[in-house]
Amino acid sequence: MSYHLTHKEIDHVVLERNQIGHSWRNQRWDSFCLVTPNWQCNLPGFPYAGPEPKGFMKKADIVAYLEAFVASFQPPVFEGVAVKQLRKLSDGLFEIQSTHGTLTAKQVVVAVGGYHKPRIPRVSEKVPAHIRQIHSSEYRNPAQFSEGNILVIGSGQSGCQIAEDFHLAGRHVHLSVGSAPRVARRYRGRDVVEWLADMGHYDMPVELHPQKEAVRAKANHYVTGRDGGRDIDLRVRAKEGMQLHGRLINCVDGVMHFADDLTKNLDNADQSSENIKNIIDGFIAENGISAPNEARYVPVWTPEDGGSCIDLIAENITGIVWSVGFESSFDWIDLPIFNGKGYPNHYRGVSREPGVYFLGLPWLHTWGSGRFSGIARDSEFLLAQIEQQLQAVLEGVN
């Protein structure tokens, strides 16, 4: 957003609670890398220009990319400034109370993303005190935990990748598998992301998605950019010794109880991947594209029926990583612009309050919103709204 405002010479400041790129620097594990190919990194005026467009940037490379983008136009950023309240004054200006004083502005862009408070269920309180528990945002590497076995709760992108990180380091891992879908890394000669991009899936507006706004709450498909990009097949990991369980139900007297839904969850994840392949097949056939044929996925492992449980002490579980997502928190915004769940009501980031905008939310407008691939388009759209608002004010003055 600041890039566009800077190039339009619109006076503004950026308030950053920590430092630019904080979450990439401090809330990702050491082996973290992008899930989408580097060519999808397309910040405004600053597309990826490195040597591996079809590769997947690692954590340090992502930070370097952001730092280079910032250096390219030097935005007016004030780091270490936390905003405590945003409200509207009687004269129509917006007041921003921060840890470094109070500001006023004619317009405000809220670009804080949608992942604010790490979610850790209350069942964690029943875990024996000697077992270390952290949220996925605190995970860095297996050395954080003393010798022993590990339990990862949650099988979205973070949960699966963290479970693999332990597994590849030689640790014995238990993984609680939920309803997150998966996707193949490559199919019929190309990265699946390339096929989906060609089919316009990253450009589909949320209002045209079959699930409409409900898609904003759905988990992303799990896959990885690790090792040059590959599938995450939990069935393969199970054959190698990772122990899979269904959805966590409860913890009673140090025993974790899991639902009898592991087979269903694995089957549904596989079916999601196969459905995407079906769509790709149709696109290839409809457009007469020459692409190699590829055999479909065949499960290599099937769980036994029935629920399961883990006696945490008997199984020598020394650490638990909660990878069950985040909660949004906009309670610092004192404006009537939220729905019953406290989530912003908006259209393409334009809220019900003239002059207040949101940027960087998942599915703000398309699947690419909130990612390096779609943020340029979203911010450019908001720039047009900001300019219209400024013009309206000038016309009102004249």
- Count every helix, treating DSSP H or I runs of 4 or more residues as helices: 8
Strand-residue proportion: 15-25%
Q: What is the name of the CATH superfamily of the largest domain?
A: FAD/NAD(P)-binding domain
Oligomer: single chain
Helix proportion: 25-40%
Q: Give the class-level CATH name of the largest domain.
A: Alpha Beta
Topology:
Blueprint: H1 2-7, E1 14-16, H2 22-26, E2 42-43, E3 46-47, H3 59-73, E4 77-79, E5 83-88, E6 94-98, E7 101-105, E8 108-110, E9 117-118, E10 132-135, E11 149-153, H4 157-168, E12 173-176, E13 186-187, E14 190-191, H5 192-198, H6 234-239, E15 243-245, E16 248-252, E17 255-258, H7 262-287, E18 308-311, E19 317-322, E20 326-327, E21 333-334, E22 346-347, E23 350-351, E24 356-358, H8 375-397
Parallel strand pairs: 1-4, 5-21, 8-24, 10-19, 11-12, 11-19, 12-15
Antiparallel strand pairs: 2-3, 5-6, 6-7, 9-20, 13-14, 16-17, 17-18, 22-23
